[in-house]
Each structure stands twice: as C-alpha cells, then as structure tokens.
Amino acid sequence: MNGEHPEVCPSDESGEKNEIVGPTPILNYVNCNEDTTGEETANDFGNVVAEHGNGDDDASLQSDVAEILENLDSLGENKSDHACLQQKSHSSLKTLDLAEEIEKKQAFTAAQPMRLEGVSRGSTVLGYFDVNPNNAITRIISSQAFRHDHGSPHVVAVHINYIAVGMSKGSIVVVPSKYTAHQVDNMDAKMTSLGLQGDRSNVPVTSMCFNLHGDLLFAGYGDGHYTVWDVQKASALKVITEHRAPVVHMLYLGQDTQVTRQFNVKLLDETTSRVVCASPLLYGEGHGGTTMSSQISSAVSTSSISSMMGGMLDEGVVIFITHQSALVVAKLLKSELKVLEKWTVESAAIGLAWLGDQMLAILTVTGQLYLFAKDGNLIHQTSFSVDGFQGNDLIAYHMYFTNTFGHPEKAYHNSVAIRGATIYILGPEHLIISRLLSWKERIEVLRKAGDWMGALNMAMALYDGQLHGVIDLPKNLYDIQRSVMPYLVELLQLYVTEVFSYMSVSCYSQNINGDQFNEIKEQYTRVGGVAVEFCVHIRRTDILFDEILPKFEDAHHKDTFLELLEPYILKDMLGSLPPAIMQALVEHYSERGWLQRIEQCVLHMDILSLDFNQVVRLCREHSLHCALIYLFNKGLDDFTTPLEELLVVLRDSTRENATSLGAPNAWAVTRLPSNVAHANVLHLLELDTEATLEVLRCGFTEVEHSKPTLSSQESTNLNMDSAESQNLVQKVVEILSDILDASYFQVGSPICSDDVDMVEVWPSMKDVDHMYEFIAYCVTFEEANASRDILSQIFKYLTSEVNKLDTASENTIEILKRREKQLLSLLQVVPETRWDASYVLHLSEKAEFHQVCGYIHAIRHHYVAAMDSYMKTMHEPLYAFSFIHDMLSLLRNEELDAFESAVISRIPDLFKLSREGTYFLIVDHFSGKTQYILSELQSHPESLFLYLKTVIEVQTTGTLNISRLENLDVLDSPGASAQQQSNGVQAYLEAISCSLKLLSSNRVNVTDEMMELYFELLCRYDRGSVLKFLESSESYRVEHCLRLCQEYGIIDAASFLLERVGEVGSALLLILSNLSEKFVMLDAEIRNFSSNTVLDNLNAILKKKVVADILDIVHACIGLCQRNSPRLKPEESESLWFQLLDL
After folding, report:
1. From CA 682, how far away is CA 669, in angstroms rounded?
2. Distance of alpha carbon 532 from alpha carbon 1094, whole angstroms
3. CB atoms within 10 A of CB 1052
4. Are 126 and 454 in contact (CB under 8 A)?
5. 778 φ/ψ angles, rounded to the nearest 5 degrees
6. What's the half-sphere exposure (Cβ side, CA atoms, 13 Å) at 757?
7. What pLDDT score was predicted for residue 406?
8. What are the start and end residues of every segment in region (Disordered) (predicted)?
9. Can you tell me the mean pLDDT for 152-163?
10. Rounded distance, CA 436 to CA 355, Å?
11. Taking 80 as the threshold, does the pLDDT of residue 547 lie above it?
12. What single DSSP character describes residue 635?
C-alpha cells in the first residue's frame, strides 16, 4: 500500500469492477450479471480496498415487476381483438367464460412497450476498511535515527486516548491520539518515551496493555519482569521481577491484580496444539486496549482455562487460534469451557480480536484480514501491502520461542491491537491503521464514485437491517430505520436532482428528434422507476408524490411517472395513492384507452386508503364496472348497488352489443310479465343461464345447510331468514316456470324445434335443461313447489336420452346415474297425487332407471315387481338386498308368504347379483330351508358354485368379505328423502355386520360330497383358482381331482397333482405340452412387426401376452426341476433337466 490517492472499486459479486460511463453515471445502471471494466475512481476516503464479500444477495423486486411487463410488452390493445375473440369463441365458450377471457387479455394489454428497471438489487461489494499506513507513528518508527537509538518496534497497545509502541531496546513510545468512530485517527506530533535505567534499560518490550482509564500502562519484557507505568508522569510506579520467562501476553481485567497476574503468566493449550491467542468477548467494555497477541510456551489444561476465564465473565464467547490455521469457537458456561464450532482460514492466523460485540477480526501471516460474524460466517476478506514489505515481513514478530528441533520460531504476539472499530497492525517500520467504515461512509464512497445504483442498493439493504459489518447503528430494526431515514431521503433527492440537472442540460443543448425524444423518455422512465421502488421500499411515498413528482411535472413527463406506478400497484407494493394522483392516473389511462389496466389497478388498492367517493365517481364516469363491484363489496359490504347498476347498463345497452351483453330475446319478453324482477332475472339468465342458476342455488341453500346451535333469538332470526329465502326460491321457480311455459309452446322455439343448427336463440335446449335441474333441485329440498306440467317436463327431461355433444366433462353412464338419483329424490318428495305413476314408470322403464321403477312398484305395493326392478341394478346390488331385508321384516301373513316364495325362487339370480348378500339372506331369513335351497340350486350350476364357494370361504376363514356389497357410487342425492333411503341402506349394512360376528356359530356343515362338487364346479367356472385351492387345501382325493383337471385341461393344477404323486417327469411333459402352441403364436406376432425397425420390434414383442405366457411356463419348469432334483437320484435328476433343455 502506498501513499497515492485512495481507491474505490465498486464491484459485483464476482469482484469485477463496474463501469461508470461518461457524465451520466446515474442513468447507466449497473447490471450485476454483466462483466464491465473501468478505471478506479478517486475520492476523499483513504485507501478503500474493494474485495470479495460474502453477504447474501437480496431478492430482486425487479423480477416481480418484470412478470407483469412481459405480458404488457407482448400484447397489443386493439378493439378488433374483442370482436374477433368473441366471434371465434362464442360457439365453444359460455358467455361469462368468454367475457372472462376477454377481460384477462385486456388486463395485460399495453398500447406501447414499457420498460422499468428500478434499483438493481445485487450485492454491491465494497471494501469495508479505510487502510492507511501514513501516520505520525509510521514516520517516527521508520526514521533511521530513531531506530538506531530505540531499535525496531515489537509490540503495540492502544487506548481511547493513546497509542503505545514497545521497542526492541526497551523503550516505549506513547503518542496521544483521540479516537472517534467516524474520523481518521488524529495523532499528536508530541510523543512520550518510557524506559528504565540500569541493567534493564535495553531489555526488549514483549507485551503491553492499558488500564481502563488510560493513566496506567502495563509493560512486559523479555527477561520476565513487567513494569507499571504512569503515562501522564512518564514514570515507573512498580517493577515486578518474579517471572523468568518472557511475558508475551497481558490483559487488564480490572482491579483484581491476582486474576490479572494469574492470567498473564498461565498458558492456554487446546489438547495438543499450542494456542497463540485468546480473545474474550466482554460485554459492556469501553474503547480500551484489548490486544491481539500470542501466548508463552508453557501449557495448562482446559480446566485451568475454565478457572481463569471464570473470573472474567460467566456467560461469554472465547475464540482460540492454533498455529495450524484452525479456528475454535468456545463458550464459557458456568465455568466450563464448551467448544461450539471449528473452522480454518487459508493461512496461519497470528491474532484476532472483537470489533464490537458482533464481529471478529482475524489477521493471518500472509497479510489477509478476515471479518467474521459471531456465528462464524465470513463477512469480508481483504489483503494489504506496504511498499518495501510483503509476506512474512509485513508484520512485526519476535523469536523468543523455539520449535521441537530447537530452532527459533517466529511469533507475532502483540503485533495487532484494536480500539473501537479500528485495527492497528504493527510492522517492522510502520503502523497500519485499518478503520472500519461507517454505514454512511460506505454509501458515500459509492455515491462519490458515481455508482448510484450501488449506493441505493446498499441503502435499501441498510434499511432492511441486512448490511453486514456495521457497528455504529442501534440493534433494533425500527431504531435503525428511524436513524437512517433522513439520510436515505437525502440520498434519493440528491440522485434525482443530479439526474434531472444533467437531463435538462442535454435537452436544451440540442435539437431533439423522434429517436432522441424516446431515449430521453426512457431515461426518465429509468430514474422514475428507481425513485418509485426506493420510496416504496422505505415506505416514504410522501417523498415520492410531494417532491419527486413535481420534478417530473416541471420536465413535462408527468405521464411517464404515472405509468411507472402501475407495476408496483399490481404487485401490491403500492396500495394507496393520494386523491389527486389517483384522479390523474385514471384520466391519463382513460385518454390512452387503457381502461382495463386502470381497473386492474383499482382492484389492487387498499380501500381504506382511498377517497371512496372520488374513486366511485371515476369508476362510474369511465365504466369501470369490475372496480365498482370491488369497491362496494369490499368497502361497504354492499352487493346490491353494483348489481343494480350493472343491470341498468345491461338493459340500456344497444342492440348491436346484445350478443355480448345479454339483451333478452323479443319472443320471451312479449310472453312474460313485464315487471322488474322478471327483467333482471331474464338479463342474468340469458347472460349465462348455468352460472346464474348455480349462484342462486348456492345462495338459497346456504341457510338450510348450515344451522348451528343458536340461542332462541338467533334461531328466530335464522328462521325468518330461512322463510325469506324460501319465498325467494319460490319466486325464482315461478319465473323459470313462466319462461319454460312460454318457450315450450312457442312455435319455432328451441324446445320444439328440431333444427340443431339454430344459433342466437334463447333459451337453448341446454339452458332449458339447466332450468329443469334447478327446479328439480329446489323441489327436492322442499324449498319450492312446481306445477304438474313443469314436473311432467322435468320427468321427461330426466329420462330422456343424453346428448353426447354436451357430455365433454363426464361420460353418458355417469350422467344417467346422476339423473336417476335426481328423479328418485324428486319422486320421494313430491306427493303421489301430483304425478302420474304409470307415466313416470313408463319413462323410467324406457330409460332403464331400475331403482326408480323399484320405488314406484313398491309404493304401489307391487313388491315382487319392485324386487325384480332392484335386481336389475347390477352395479349396486345393495339396494336389492336392502329392499328384500326391509320387506321380509315389514310384511305379514299372506303378503309375507308370497314374497318369501318369490325370493326363494329368485335365489339363483340373487347369487349372481351378490353371493355374499344372498348368503346372509339365507342365514338370516331362510336358515331352516338350506337343504331345499341347495336342491333347487342343482339345476343352476353357476349359482350352486357361488353358493358352495361362499360356504367354503366361511368354513375356512370364519368370515366373509362384504366390501363389494358395500361399494356404492358416490353421487349427489339431494333432499331429506335421499337421507332416509341412505338410512335404510345403512340399517341393512349394520344388520349384516351383526351377522358377520355370528358366522362362526352359524356355519353350514361342509361334507366331502359338497367339497368334490365344489371342485368340479371350480374347474368349470373359475379355472384360475384351481391351483390355489389345491395348494391351500388337503381334504380332497388326488386321483379324482387329477382326472377333473385333465378333463378340463387345467395344466398347472394337473402338473401340481402329478408332482404330488411322484410323477415328476409326467408333470414336466404336461407343462411343456403347451409350449409349442405358444411359440407358434409368438412367431405370428413377430411376422406382424416385420416392417418396423429391429429395436422397435423387440420392445413391442416383449410387451405381448404370449411372451409373458412363455416365460411363465419356463419358470414353472425350472421351479419343478429345482424342487425335485434334491430328492431324485442323480441320473433321474439329469434326465429331468435334459428333458427341459432339449426343448
């Protein structure tokens, strides 16, 4: 380091310097991701070194704004887009969906590209220290005459008022120096020399420290004695000679001289490595002279360290450095030293000390200065040099220690000292003063160097409490922000003033053409973006609108400024605007035709911060309907007023906009009562019938579905609300009924017309279907009544065929299931006198709604017919068995006898419906007729098989799996009657659950004849389960079963039985008998893929079932040979394997 002008090197995270361009550095932003070059710029701050930092990068707010601007740049706002999109999508989108798509497009549409950068949020790295070797002490100790008389400097000690340097010939130089945290050291040219007379006059000084007040200086010497000096009188108060080894470390801890003496003469040693320095963190200490130095060469245990440090502090952090470059963090807890963390630095450390109570400075032998946080994270690293000195010669050292070989070893004790935020490094002919820059100085360095973005970025990090290496600020974030706020405001004002000054000169010094005007506007956009983001970040929008905006107005770029606010509003970073700014923003966007964009801005505003009346007036004047709805809903909890206004707009709309706005058809208006309620509902229904009815459904049923436990008064209010809601539902149903009646009998209406290509006619068939479903839903919940004619229309709709063109979201089967549930729920609510049972039964039979047919037969007391209908619901057998269970419990006398006979006669079919349900039916209701039922099943072999399978399953496992019986399609079944039906099914399930617990005591006795009959039927109806049965059962005749397996061609089971009787060879041949046929099939598959590539052929063929069958056969053969080889003779085993290999 030399005495030239100080250096500033603002750099990015890579440490590369950023370019400061021409006379307008404020306008050329620093991009932290670009590599730039440039010369180092002079300033007034000493030698400031820019080095790599380790601070975390801030999250970029600019990226959030960019998300919006990408959409704004890529889209153009053209009125023809609305009509084009509508015309293209009208046939495939609902009206509301179409409007929503158009709104989304317009919300992100810009008339021109916008560009906004804001503050470049990177990690602007700056040197943390002002390093300067040019001072009075350097000039003194580098003098040849002084060195001749006093020798070379060995140790340094500092106090808030003094700096002392100990020399190799025994003298001590004390220079008065007042310390302040924000200024360079102010050293007095007058110095004081301290030295003993006599034999000890030339003994080198090896350690020093001041007391707290600075009037006493403790000095240790190479012969082991130490002296207490009176600094002001320049005289020795006391000389202590009890030590013999050099005193290389001294630390003043207070008035306890015994503790001080003990600490000074003891050694610190961590296990086997010699510790060269210890630095305690003493909370509340002043600017005393805590020094960085090494220890003497003897050692003590860790317990000794505990006893020594316990006198200093009870809860603190102690840092040790070994000469192997290892750093150890330890904490003293109740006189016990606990190691917390260990890490290493790049080269051997020679000293360390605390900067404040949050940072630790570490100096290495190579001239590297590290700055660590207390948690061990590296904050900063820098290196320094002095002309004529480098490497090991940069720092003063002594050679009192010897290594294990007996050779002298360099030791850097007491060569570094700290007071406040300044580090003093003693060299052979110099004293380097490295002062930690204050937060304001760091920002000023960047500002004066022209790096405005770096300065503003650092200011924002400071405001967030994320600036590292700061010791001159409060600890609390709120106090920090309050302390730095005036300077941050001043910094922004300076930035804007400088930019505008330059731009005013540029604008008036030349004739401006179109391109130059755009460039100037872009520059205003940039500076405005920086100002907006900075003010938003520090929460000082008053500065933005009161002081920054007037500058844009004076420069005739107020519109540019207003456009800058939009991205920050849409990202919820700017939630409120003054009334005048809000009005100007709305008017400007309205003039430019950006109504959708300003509407989006209003939707992101904080309503409490707005002038409500003003914003409502603006929204009404400019037809910002979405914003108007938002204001009334959120601001006043008023949902009626905006709806009324929208309906007025809808009714007053012109005919040419009828398609998009939903003006009602003339034929419907002329045939409906001309009252306000009908008109409003008509408008909404034609706008989107499905959406309107869905909203009404949710609103009307909310009270019914949520009735918590309330007090009597609350219950009364709720009942009133419920009654009012029911009246409204009835009114809506009546309106829909009028619409349906008017359209149903209208000649050429969509309901009567077969012209499927008819367009632009309301209500369409789909709209009518939605009305039918809404009325059915309301009637099912008993919230409204419908006329007999409307009910007939609903019945016809629910049982009609499904239009496959309208089933994109769900398949036909699911639609039919849902309709059947709706119809069944509706019939259970509506009195029988209001619908024709025969007519509905005919419709249901045609639509194959078997549950509905069963219900109608049941209410007509045709129980057998009802049972037959329920039995046809193959996918939900539970309803049939639940109905049979209920009837057998409810019927009496002749009806019961007739029904029982009908049930028994249908048991073969019931087994096919559900063998588990039928088994429980027999056990619960026909346990005395088991033999009769078994005999009747002889003529129905498949049903007999299912019965025997169930009996044997109960016999072997003691239970029965009823999961298939419990499986029901989960569909919405509205209404109280549906709940009753569900309760009946649930009661049946509970009944069979009770029967499950009694199965072990109600088992059917399984005879050998039944078992052999079951095996024969198993071979006939469930070939895949034969082998499993043989492997898990023992009660069968092998010869009988083998004959049946061979008769039915069940190869795996037959080979298993052959192996069991010892005919292994025959079993192997039987398994291999099917292999030839499989290879023929494989050959045919291969020929089918001959036109493709070889690799494609191979992959496709390997996925074929025939390949899997061949592999199964081969695996079965190998398993057979492996199982039987150990028990066969060697020649038999070889024959068996060769028999397999020959094939």
Report:
1. 9
2. 66
3. 20
4. yes
5. -65, -40
6. 0
7. 75
8. 1-23
9. 91
10. 9
11. yes
12. I
